[in-house]
Fold this protein.
Amino acid sequence: MDITEVARRSGVPASTLRFYEEKELIASIGRWGLHRVFDHGVLERLVLIALGRSAGRATWSVPPSGASYGPPRLELLGREEKRVSRRRRFKSAKRNH
């Protein structure tokens, strides 16, 4: 998938994708002409980065690219999503009181 397709599918601007690559949060697998090309696993990686950011974590606290995208990673992603949901509910309840 080229950078334009990743940006379209993920909603993350190409400039942000280039920034993430520079910070080694994601990695391209090559180039097609002037366009960076990414593996389909980059979409899962972007979800992990977005979850970390929504939980208040700095992007550099996300494990570097090249990490496994297998089942243990997806399990971690699910746990993080639940933690973020609980945190949002707690903040919402705190504001309402």
The chain has a mean pLDDT of 78. The first helix runs from residue 3 to 10.
